Amino acid sequence: MNKIVDGYFTLLKIIITLCLATMVVLVFGNVVLRYGFNMGITASEEISRLLFVWLTFLGAIVALREHGHLGVDMLVRRLPSVGKKICLVVSHLLMIYVSWLMLDGSWSQTLINIDVAAPATGFSMGLFYGVGVVFGVSALAILAYNLYLVATGKATDADLVMVRDSEELEELEEMIEHHGQPQPLTATAAKK
C-alpha cells in the first residue's frame, strides 16, 4: 500500500513539474513572439491559467502530506501529549469539514461547467473545477490517515505537531543539542 501512495505523490510531483515547465515555455514563448514577431499564441494565457490552477492545488496536496503548510506551533509544542492529540484531532476535523465543502462545491461546479467551452482553447471549463475534486479526495484521505494514526496510538510526539521547522531552525537546534548554547561571534570571527 505504501508503494501505491508513494507512487501517487511522485506522480503528483511530476505533474506539478510538467505544469510549471509548460507554463514557463508558453508565457516566455508568447512574450518573445509578441515583442519579436508581433504575433502570439492565442491559447497561451488560458492554458497557463489552467496549469497554474492545477499546479496550485496539486502542490497543496503534496504540502499537506509533507506538513509543509504554514502554521504556528508555539502553543502546541508546549502542550503535553494529550493536549497535542486534542489539538490535532480538532484541527483535522475542521480541515476535513472544509475539504468536504471543497469537494462538494468542486463536484457541483465541474458538473455545471462540463459542457461549457473555454473561449480560446475550447477545453471544458470543468477542468478548472475538476482539480478541486482531486484535491478534496486526496486531502480527505490524508487527513483521515493522520487521524487513524492518532486513534491507534501510532503517531509519535513529533507527528502530533503538524508544522515542519525551517532548515535553519533545525540546524540551530541540532547545534545546541550537540555543542550547548551557540556563542556570539567575536569581532574577529565576524570579519572572517
From TrEMBL:
Domain Tripartite ATP-independent periplasmic transporters DctQ component: 23-149
Protein name, entry field: TRAP transporter small permease protein
Keyword Metal-binding among record annotations: no
GO molecular function, one term: transmembrane transporter activity
Lineage: Bacteria, Pseudomonadati, Pseudomonadota, Alphaproteobacteria, Rhodospirillales
Taxonomy, superkingdom: Bacteria
A Pfam cross-reference name: DctQ
Quaternary structure (record): The complex comprises the extracytoplasmic solute receptor protein and the two transmembrane proteins.
Places the protein is found: Cell inner membrane
Source organism of the structure: Skermanella aerolata
InterPro entries: DctQ, TRAP_DctQ
